[in-house]
Amino acid sequence: MEFYDVHFSYIDNDTLEERFVSVPEHGGGSLITEGPMKPGTMHTVAFGTAERLGLYRLELQVTGGKGKLSISGSGADTKTKEAIKVAFDYFKANINRVTAMSKVGDHDYHLHVVEMHNTGAAGALTLCSFIALCSGMMNKPLQGQMVVLGDMSLGGTIVKTVNLAESLQVAFDSGAKRILIALVGQFREMYTANWYNFTFLVPHPNPPPLGEGVYEKRRLCQFAVYLEKRTTG
């Protein structure tokens, strides 16, 4: 018998308050903590310098300034900084499509990259850096326990997720409950990946089905699919 999405807790007899208890068997589930994140903070799964998939957290701080970008963190090397600069250039060029309320040149941006699995610095961080910049600029957080997969070129072309099935597993083991996937020619992988932990969420009531089975697969749009972890009960 197998259980998932399970919490261990007890009831305090004096206060009748339920208290949750962490156990070692939960593994890396605490890497992505529950609850809302700060604007500009997000997680992704990518290959590090050790050629192993790992979890990375991006934390953006936006302050008043003149449009300067600075990068720090144990998960950042030359390739990482190049990927983030590509995201920043695209962010500056397309900010009017994101929000008309702010100007890039009115703020300074400090992006801190944290490697959560000691897999070394990652290079495929352009897409998630762009999303973090948008989140920080608009002061709107991503949904809690969300992981964004995929990458992006300087021109805004979406780059597919490498090793989609394993990336999903790393995200799930780290505590992710929501996944945003940039899909480019990966519908075959959509059928072969193990989706039993996730529910496909759609923005309209009658989307076309992608396949048949116990868990229905539906297309959100041409380039993205949003998954949410199944809950018990």
Overview of the structural elements:
Helix content is about 20%, strand content about 30%. The protein has five helices and 14 strands. The chain has helices at about 80-95, 95-100, 125-140, 165-175, 185-190; strands at about 10, 20, 40-45, 55-65, 70, 105-115, 145-150, 150, 160, 180, 200, 210, 215-220, 225-230. The strands form four sheets. Strands 5-6-4-3-7-10-14-11 form an eight-stranded mixed beta sheet. The protein has a two-stranded antiparallel ribbon with strand order 1-2. The chain has a two-stranded antiparallel sheet with strand order 8-9. α1 (about 80-95) crosses α3 (about 125-140). Residues about 200-225 have low confidence and may be disordered.
Describe this protein with a few key phrases.
single chain, 233 residues, alpha+beta, 8-stranded mixed β-sheet, two-stranded antiparallel ribbon, globular
Helix share, percent: 10-25%
> Which word captures the global form?
globular
Mean residue pLDDT = 76
Poorly predicted tracts of residues: 200-224
What structural class should be given to the helix and strand makeup?
Answer: alpha+beta
Alpha-carbon distance between the termini? 16 Å
**Can you list the strand order of the major beta sheet?**
5-6-4-3-7-10-14-11
Order of helices and strands: EEEEEHHEHEEEHEHEEEE
User: What is the rounded Rg?
Assistant: 19 Å
Strand percent estimate: 25-35%
Q: What is the tally of beta strands?
A: 14
Q: Biggest β-sheet: count, sense, barrel?
A: 8 strands, mixed
How many helices does DSSP assign? 5
